[in-house]
Amino acid sequence: MDSLSEFLCVWRTVAVSGREYIEAVVLPEHDGPTPELQQALDAWPGAYYWADGLDEGRLILIRHTVPIQKERWWLHITLFALSFLTVWMSGTLLAGLIAVPQVPLFRDPVVAGRALLDWILQLGPGVGLAFAVTLMGILLAHELGHYLVARRYRIDASPPYFLPAPPWYFFIGTFGAFIRLRSPVIDRRQLMDVGAAGPWVGFVVAVTAFVFGLNASELVADVGATQQVIMFGDFRFYLGDSLITAWLRKLVVGEGTVLLHPLAQAGWVGILVTALNLMPFGQFDGGHVVYALVRDLQRLVGIFMLMLLVVLGFDFWFWWVWGAFILIVSGGRIGHPSVLEYHRPLPRNRRLLGLATMALFAVTFIGVPFA
């Protein structure tokens, strides 16, 4: 602090989880900041930001006080590679280029392994690979949005963990991805920025893929439960609509039932993933955003959302599973845990970001994803 103390009236320092954060009040003659203070801030070995909504000249400084733990990059890369492979398999299955393997996976491991390897070797470039690149790109963009903003605030965050899934049981080939925050979030501004970054970045990539995929999709003489359909082997799946997918499909394709190209399928999944992560309870992205907006009232919003999922589950049982999953991941809590400096007000531009993010949830939510 020696390089900054001459510019400050008062400050307090708190050390937590290998980080030191300082809340300081800048001398009036250096508020702005002056070039001298800006030069000192540029040399600060950490992050800083101005705490809008408090007294003028309130500055937040953050730095690490212990070395950052070494990441197990081999694990993250391996999980990413396995997930890419299983998503590639799914894309090839969805394109109808190979059949679902008829392998007794649990009866004879040697025979099953050889058959599975032969099946994998049938994969090649084409729409299956395009599906994998697109969907994994959407998931990676989402998680990097969280990760990079967390690192910007010197929050100890893990790289993304990707979760592969058997493509013949789960048609997209992955259970998604997540990062771990290994140190506390200081205030609601940080929580808002970290929570909202992932959905917005992933949404932009997903919508881009959906629009490009719609241009490559084809109209079919089929009147089903919805106006968009995919094939998985011999089975037809009619995909539900959110406000954004319905509007984009009518804008790009027009009226009629559309057999979605794998790029559009990946985009549709990415849009659904955006809504799933923005459920406003527990410790998912939506819980972060709503807590940052309204603090303890987030629990009431979460209870309402959970009751809505129970009702929707009578039409589509997946919502019961998803609600239970969020509760398990959140340790059974509907409410969001407090940040360290919960009393610090949320800046106006972050309140607008929170409202926009909840609007994003409204336009991406699909009441019945599969009909």
Description:
- With 371 residues, the chain is α+β, with helices and mostly antiparallel strands.
- Helices cover 49% and strands 14% of the residues.
Helix and strand arrangement:
Layout: H1 2-5, E1 8-16, E2 19-26, H2 35-42, E3 47-50, E4 58-64, H3 73-94, H4 109-121, H5 127-152, E5 161-164, E6 174-178, H6 188-216, E7 218-220, E8 228-232, E9 235-238, H7 243-252, E10 257-259, H8 262-277, H9 285-294, H10 298-312, H11 318-329, H12 348-364
Parallel strand pairs: 8-10
Antiparallel strand pairs: 1-2, 2-4, 3-4, 5-6, 7-10, 8-9
What's the SSE pattern?
Answer: HEEHEEHHHEEHEEEHEHHHHH
What gyration radius follows from the Cα positions, in whole Å? 24 Å
CA-CA gap between termini = 61 Å
Strand content: 5-15%
Overall geometry comes to elongated
Helical fraction? 40-55%
Task: Tell me the total number of β-strands.
Answer: 10
What kind of oligomer do you see? single chain
What are its keywords?
371 residues, alpha+beta, four-stranded mixed sheet, 12 helices, 10 strands
Quick summary:
The chain is of the alpha+beta class. The chain has helices at residues 2-5, 35-42, 73-94, 109-121, 127-152, 188-216, 243-252, 262-277, 285-294, 298-312, 318-329, 348-364; strands spanning 8-16, 19-26, 47-50, 58-64, 161-164, 174-178, 218-220, 228-232, 235-238, 257-259. The strands form 3 sheets. It has a 4-stranded antiparallel sheet, with no helix packed on it. A 4-stranded mixed sheet has the order 7-10-8-9.
